[in-house]
Specification:
The protein is mostly helical and about 300 residues long. The chain has a domain of about 110 residues. About 70% of the residues lie in helices and about 0% in strands. It has 16 helices and no strands.
Length: about 300
C-alpha cells in the first residue's frame, strides 16, 4: 500500500494480536508491526485501539518490560491511561498476566471509569495469583458500584475458587449467579464446578452434579471427573465415568468423537489400581480402533571414530 492510515495499521495489528492458534508467534509479530508503525515516514500515530491491541500482545507473551514501556508511551504521547477505560483495562490485564499484580491493582484503583471488562480483568488477575477471597470481595464491590457481572466474570470467579480451594464459596456462587444475579450458567461454568468438586475429592457430588445438569454434558466434563478419580484413587468411580465416556463416544457426536486419550486415561486408572486384566482389555480395544501406533524412535548422533 502506498498510503497507510491509523485504521490500516490497527486492522493488521488487531489481526495478529487476536489470533489464538500459535498466539505467541502472532503476538510478537503484532509488536513488530507496532514498531514499524512508529517508524513509518507517514507519521501516523497510534490510537487507543492500537494500544489495547499491543498491550494484549505483551500480556500474551508475558513481557512485562514491553508492557511497562507501552504504558509510559501512552502517558507521554496520548493520554492519562487511567482516563481511558479501554487502555486502562488493557493495562490491568497486562500487568496481571505478566505477574505484577500490585501494578494492576494500582492502575485499577486510579481509573476514573470502569466497565464490566475492567472488573473482569482485575478479578481474572486475582484468580491467576490465587487470591480467591479477594476476587470474591471484588464481586461484591462490583455490585456496590452498580456494575453487573457477565458470564466471563463468573468463569474467572470459579477459577479463583478452584485455585484457592474455596469449594463451598464456589458452590454458593453458582447457586446465586442465575437466581440473584441473572446470569445463566453455560458449559464452561458447569465445568468449573466439576473441577472444583473434583479437586476437593468430592467425586460423588461431582458425578451427581453432572447427572443433574439441565443440558447434555460434554466430553470435557467427564474427562475432568475421570482425571480427579485417578488423582484421588477412586477406581470404582473412575471406571464408571470412563466407561460412560467411551459409551458416549460410540454415539459419535461432534464433541464426543473417539479420542485415544480417553482410552489411555482409563487404562492408566486401571494400572494405578493394578487391575492388569482390565488394562489389557482397554489396550486391545485401542488396537482394534487403530489408536496404538508403532513405538517411536529417537536418533542419537555419535562421534565418527574414523574421522578422528
Amino acid at each position: 500500500m502506498s498510503e497507510r492510515s491509523s485504521v490500516t495499521w490497527n486492522a493488521i495489528i488487531t489481526g495478529y494480536s487476536s489470533q489464538r492458534a500459535g498466539h505467541k508467534q502472532y503476538a510478537f509479530s503484532a509488536l513488530l508491526l507496532f514498531r514499524d508503525m512508529l517508524m513509518d515516514e507517514s507519521g501516523v500515530m497510534p490510537t487507543d485501539t492500537t494500544m489495547v491491541c499491543v498491550l494484549s500482545a505483551a500480556s500474551q507473551l508475558g513481557m512485562l518490560e514491553i508492557g511497562a514501556s507501552l504504558h509510559g508511551f501512552a502517558e507521554k504521547t496520548m493520554c492519562v491511561p487511567e482516563d481511558d477505560v479501554y487502555i486502562g483495562t488493557g493495562l490491568v490485564d497486562m500487568y496481571s498476566k505478566c505477574g505484577c499484580l500490585e501494578s494492576a491493582l494500582l492502575v485499577f484503583k486510579r481509573m476514573n471509569q470502569k466497565n464490566v471488562l475492567t472488573w473482569t480483568a482485575m478479578i481474572t488477575g486475582l484468580s491467576i495469583h490465587g487470591k480467591g477471597e479477594q476476587a470474591l470481595a471484588f464481586l461484591y464491590e462490583m455490585g456496590a458500584n452498580g456494575m453487573k457481572p457477565n458470564a466471563a466474570t463468573f468463569t474467572s470467579l470459579f477459577s479463583a475458587c478452584c485455585h484457592a480451594g474455596l469449594v463451598q464459596e464456589g458452590i454458593d456462587l453458582f447457586c446465586d449467579m442465575n437466581k440473584k444475579l441473572g446470569v445463566m450458567p453455560n458449559m464452561q461454568h458447569y465445568g468449573c464446578i466439576v473441577d472444583l468438586l473434583g479437586r476437593a475429592g468430592r467425586l460423588k457430588e461431582a458425578y451427581d452434579f453432572i447427572m443433574g445438569m439441565p443440558v447434555r454434558p460434554d466430553a470435557v466434563l467427564w474427562r475432568s471427573l475421570l482425571g480427579a478419580c485417578k488423582i484421588h484413587g477412586d477406581t470404582a468411580m473412575g471406571e464408571k465415568v470412563g466407561n460412560l465416556l467411551l459409551q458416549l463416544q460410540e454415539q459419535s457426536f461432534d464433541d464426543l468423537a473417539p479420542r485415544s486419550e480417553d482410552y489411555v486415561a482409563l487404562s492408566n486408572l486401571y494400572a494405578s489400581a493394578e487391575w492388569w486384566i482390565k488394562v489389557e482389555t482397554v489396550r486391545k480395544e485401542m488396537k482394534v480402533r487403530g489408536f496404538l501406533n508403532k513405538a517411536g524412535c529417537s536418533s542419537v548422533q555419535t562421534a565418527n571414530l574414523n574421522a578422528l
